């Protein structure tokens, strides 16, 4: 069973990284992946926290606490699992020059994107489809760029989503 999951993970990695590769995605995916970066996440939290609008400020508080929670969980798991990034195990992968830390599991960019996306979806239900679609695109971009396995992204979806939902329930 575990071998089948690993084989499926590697198959999806190669499919997203190679089979759908094209010039347009080579330009778009590095920009999309930025939506899960520390810089974008911090900027999003900062701008929403400074808002005069109480609903937007509440979103900022929710997102900031969710980001702190999910980042702590993600870094703990990364240090515990120590999964090597796919481009190291598969040097033939198509990669782009983007900054990454040492370990792959779970995807920090995906975790951040879902912390923001789920928070937005919970606070502004009319933006749910857009927020969650952009969050998922961040995860797909990480595999397309060869820096994460699909299971890394799935774990990031879970950590970011549950962190946001849990924080939403308590705030």
UniProtKB/TrEMBL annotation:
Tell me the Gene3D superfamilies matching this sequence: Phosphatidic acid phosphatase type 2/haloperoxidase (1.20.144.10)
Q: What is this enzyme's EC?
A: 3.6.1.27
Alphabetically, the GO molecular function entries are:
undecaprenyl-diphosphatase activity
Q: How does it sit in the membrane?
A: Multi-pass membrane protein
Q: Where in the cell is it found?
A: Cell membrane
Query: Which residue ranges run through the membrane?
Result: 31-50, 56-77, 113-141, 153-170
Q: Does the keyword Transmembrane apply?
A: yes
Recite the UniProt keywords alphabetically. Cell membrane, Hydrolase, Membrane, Transmembrane, Transmembrane helix
Q: Which residues form the Phosphatidic acid phosphatase type 2/haloperoxidase domain?
A: 59-168
The name on file for this protein is Undecaprenyl-diphosphatase
